């Protein structure tokens, strides 16, 4: 077969024609480039306009192709594909095959991770005992370094223990719950240590969460016994699940028209439960240096895998008590350190730090949203609706 050689072939043999052809090609590519840029601009504009009119509602799933993120090289390119193990898990392996493995029919498909200090051992024991080991891997983040204190608990040898002094739940989860490590778990419970679970059953909870399509959720807080920080998470008696709350008086009203946090579309940070997909997103949202993660909760809706008004919610029928202990393992807004003799001097400092981190986080978000020309805020139109109705 004779190849058709357009540039160097015999069609345009002389130099002058070749130069002409090159400038022609360059011009065509310039025009293409301009068209491409124009297209991506108008596509975004068009989409935003549609969003404003309320014609498109869900997360933007198609972006102009100029905005497609590059596939980063992962380091595995030098290996044959079939040998590449991209993800891992927290399964403990026997040193040799004793035949036990083959008798275990099922691997746990969910994960319970708690930041703990030995002082809360009894409470944590009661939490872990509620979570059947056939369904849950247990991971403890020890912030006080007292690992030995846990040894006598029946489940302790089967749990993963991670120790780092004076670190928070968010510090640990950023370092040890990378999405590639926990890819095998369908739901991740990232809990504080100061929760009572007398009225909570994890399996019933998960069946409700699946039925309701909640990607990010938490059990409701028993108002009689809990330290409460926000009305959204208070248990509504007789209800199975709620996603919004109402406030008809004072500033910051919440009604049926509310479309954004704090009225709807978020949960608090003491007992969140993430689906695998939402965790993949939330892990990226956690900042390495902002270890108290204040402000993160309000942005969780961006990780809800769709409309946060539908996919984020509070389960009322399986509920907990939030003790609000001033420990490092609780995100209760009064975070301090577990040693009560240190508490008085350190708590105000931790609180101040948390507050400052929230300001930094909010600023970072605003700047990131402004700088990323390819990112479209799926909730922008909801804010606009809100502003116009004021
Ligand atoms: C951890 O925090 C406590 C209480 O503030 C403090 O006394 C102790 O020195 C800290 N430990 C380390 C290793 O930073
Ligand atoms: C808009 O926001 C204000 C204040 O945040 C709130 O009181 C109001 O209920 C919201 N309105 C709608 C329609 O969401
Ligand atoms: C708490 O603080 C006291 C006095 O500073 C100290 O003796 C004790 O060992 C500390 N306990 C823990 C668990 O850190």
Automatic annotation (TrEMBL):
According to the record, the residues making up region (Disordered) are 331-350
User: InterPro entries, per this entry?
Assistant: DUF707 (IPR007877)
Keyword field? Membrane, Transmembrane, Transmembrane helix
* Chain intervals with Low complexity compositional bias: 331-340
Q: Where are the transmembrane segments?
A: 20-42
Q: Would the keyword Transmembrane helix turn up in this protein's UniProt record? A: yes
UniProt name for this protein:
Lysine ketoglutarate reductase trans-splicing-like protein
Q: Which organism is it from?
A: Lupinus albus (White lupine)
């Amino acid at each position: 077969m004779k190849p058709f050689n357009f540039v160097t072939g015999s069609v345009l043999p002389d130099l002058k024609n070749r130069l002409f052809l090159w400038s022609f090609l360059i011009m065509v590519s310039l025009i293409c480039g301009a068209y491409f840029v124009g297209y991506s601009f108008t596509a975004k504009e068009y989409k935003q306009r549609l969003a404003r009119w309320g014609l498109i509602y869900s997360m933007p799933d198609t972006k102009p192709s100029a905005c497609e993120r590059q596939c980063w090289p992962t380091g595995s390119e030098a290996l044959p594909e079939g040998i590449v193990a991209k993800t891992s898990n927290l399964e403990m392996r026997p040193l040799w095959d004793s035949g036990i493995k083959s008798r275990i029919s099922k691997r746990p498909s969910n994960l319970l991770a708690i930041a703990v200090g030995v002082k809360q051992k009894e409470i944590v024991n009661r939490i872990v005992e509620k979570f059947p080991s056939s369904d849950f891997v247990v991971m403890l983040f020890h912030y006080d370094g007292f690992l030995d204190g846990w040894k006598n608990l029946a489940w302790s040898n089967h749990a993963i223990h991670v120790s780092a002094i004076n670190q928070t739940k968010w510090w640990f989860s950023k370092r040890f719950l990378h999405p590639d490590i926990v890819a095998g778990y369908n739901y991740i419970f990232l809990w504080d240590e100061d929760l009572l679970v007398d009225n909570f059953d994890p399996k019933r909870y998960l069946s409700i969460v699946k039925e309701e399509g909640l990607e990010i959720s938490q059990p409701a807080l028993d108002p009689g016994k809990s330290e409460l920080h926000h009305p959204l998470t208070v248990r509504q008696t007789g209800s199975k699940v709620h996603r919004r709350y109402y406030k008809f008086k004072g500033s910051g009203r919440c009604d049926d028209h509310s479309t954004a946090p704090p009225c709807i579309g978020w949960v608090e940070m003491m007992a969140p439960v993430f689906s695998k997909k939402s965790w993949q997103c939330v892990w990226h949202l956690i900042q390495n240096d902002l270890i108290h993660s204040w402000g993160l909760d309000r942005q969780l809706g961006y990780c809800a895998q769709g409309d946060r008004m539908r996919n984020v919610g509070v389960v009322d029928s399986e509920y907990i008590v939030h003790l609000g202990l001033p420990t490092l393992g609780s995100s209760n807004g009064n975070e301090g350190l577990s040693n009560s003799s240190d508490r008085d001097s350190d708590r105000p400092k931790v609180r101040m730090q948390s507050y400052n981190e929230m300001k930094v986080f909010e600023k970072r978000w605003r700047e990131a949203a402004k700088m990323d020309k390819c990112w479209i805020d799926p909730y922008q139109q909801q804010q606009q609706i809100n502003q116009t109705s004021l």
